[in-house]
Amino acid sequence: MTETEVVVIGGGATGVGVARDLALRGVDVTLLERGPGLNAGTSGRSHGVLHSGARYAESDPEGAADCLQENRILRDIAEGCVADSGGLFVRLGGDDADYFDRKLDACREIGMDPEPLSPAELRERVSGLSEAVEEGFAIPDGVVYPSRLVAATAANAREYGATIHTDAPVVEIDADGEADRRLTVRTGDGPTVSADVVVNAAGPWAGKVASLAGAELGIRPTRGVMVAVDYPDLGPVVNRCREPADGDIAVPHGEQAVLGTTSVTVDDPDEFERDDWEVQRTVEECAAMLPPLADTPVERTYWGLRPLYEPDELSREGRGISRDFAVVAHDSAPGLVSVVGGKLTTYRLMAEAVADHVCGTLGVDEPCRTAEEPLPGVGDPARLDELAREFGAVGPADADVVGE
Ligand SMILES: Cc1cc2nc3c(=O)[nH]c(=O)nc-3n(C[C@H](O)[C@H](O)[C@H](O)COP(=O)(O)OP(=O)(O)OC[C@H]3O[C@@H](n4cnc5c(N)ncnc54)[C@H](O)[C@@H]3O)c2cc1C
Question: What's the whole-number mean pLDDT along residues 324-339?
């Protein structure tokens, strides 16, 4: 058995972000990921939008402001893991014009400077944009390459002393309910580690992981499909300006566009249906914005799982914070902390919130430094790709950009 201060379960963006933040504060951390490489879950299966916050500006202004802040930070510290494609919101004839105005106002409210554009200007920026587009505006969306981001974050954590194990599925967490006891975490054939604090960053599997410690976490995973097609000159991220619905976003990824998505609740994150109608609907809906898509063959599809969490469970489960993400300190398993929800774009901020909580528990009085310290390899795509390969972190979201 090895000993550490903190075990982090899950090697997606959130888990490596927590490991990095804690390591930079001088905390001894061991990360356990069940996959053969990092980035094996949702992080490697998103659209890869570096959100500006515009998508959520009217429905969740606080979450949107977090996105805007983190979008700016990642451009500073993670060049090469993110790309500045820009983004547009477009309204088609028949879409609600009041919603468009509310969205534009809400973007301004959170401190963004959206740029209204005429239909002709919009069509100049986006190849193949529909004649049905009546108005739109530009926002600072970008593209994030999760393979590089996760690998560079893990590399930085390792530089500061974190230990990272892949092929280490956690199968047992011994939390005996005594607040002053350490927790023992057992993996299949991998290491057994004892720690003062265990952070559950297992994304859609977080409910399963919490149950290993006898704690409850009501996660309802929902699946969404992403459809990649050849579309070399899309330009910016193109969002449809209407209430969230299936097939309302197209994201430029190298020579391809990634179209998304759907939202269907699943019972088991390890076994769920993948239906053709999701692919068809996503393509059809996106083709309303970008008509050439109707005749473009589908190159590849992949599904991701959102870990939906009901914030009112916080009062039932323990204490913590809840916003677009939740940090839950489980009363039934002292020392176990779960982090759920959020976005790839806000992974650093989520990690900071978790690390603040953990440092409070451990009595560590070091500030967070992750917003200032650049990630290793930034500005050097070849080095970032090497790191992605070294950590086995190349996932479907950017397989077309990050070399195998
Ligand atoms: C369809 C879809 C599209 C999205 N698009 C975007 C987007 O464009 N932009 C954006 O910012 N966000 C997007 N998101 C959200 C974003 O992808 C997620 O919020 C984020 O990636 C979650 O990261 P995570 O590390 O919390 O979870 P994950 O990446 O799922 O990581 C959890 C890890 O835990 C591991 N694990 C599970 N069980 C165990 C165990 N027992 N032992 C050890 N390890 C275990 C898994 O293998 C996995 O690697 C999207 C999400 C979905 C579903």
Answer: 93
